[in-house]
Structure formats: structure tokens, C-alpha cells
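Archive record
______________

***
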Amino acid sequence: MKQILNLKINSEKRYKKFIDDVIENKIVWGLKLKNEDGWAVAISNEYEDTEVMTFWSNKIYAKACLKEEWDNYEICSITLDDFLNHWLTGLNEDELLVGVNWDMNLIGLEVEPLDLLDDILKLKISN
């Protein structure tokens, strides 16, 4: 039980770090298939029959996940404006969740795209 609680706390810290970092750096990092269309998607750890598209606030975090089933992907940057104005609304329309700053074991917080959009905009406005 304690381990599950620690994973939740760590995931929430990584979520906050994601928001802080992308506002400061104005860049979001994702994993894109090499020489093809398509982005890294994982099966939800929390919800049945749900997919999660993963993003990171730092290129190094994304690089740590370039292994096993994702070793045929490459790290790709997305401007924060594009992420906010196109990606999150598109993911919402496609009924995908967003995984932010997942660790190398592909564990992290899964959030609704519009909730992430709202959280980023709230902090961006207050800064």
C-alpha cells in the first residue's frame, strides 16, 4: 500500500514539474515513429480499453523511455502554443488520455487532455 501511495505522490510531483517546465521552456517533448506518422501511445494503467499519449517536459526524460517497444521512435519537440492550441483538443476529440513525465517504467499520471490544458493555462496566467 505504501509503495502505491509513493508512486502516486511521485507521479503528482512529475505532473507539477511538467507544467512548470513547459511554461518556462515553451517546449513539450514526445516520441514520434522514425520515418513514419505516429506517436508513442501506451495502454492505460488505470482505465480499461483506454490509450494514453505520452509527453515530457524535458528531452532527457523522453530519452529514458526510448527502449523496448519504443526503441523505433525518436524524440520530437512540440511548441507549447501548438500543444495547447491543437494537440490537447485533438487528443480530447480522439478520447485519449495524456501521460506526463512518465518514468522509464512507463508509470505516471494519466490525465484528461482538457484538464491538463486548464492546469497549464491557469498557471501561465498567474505567472
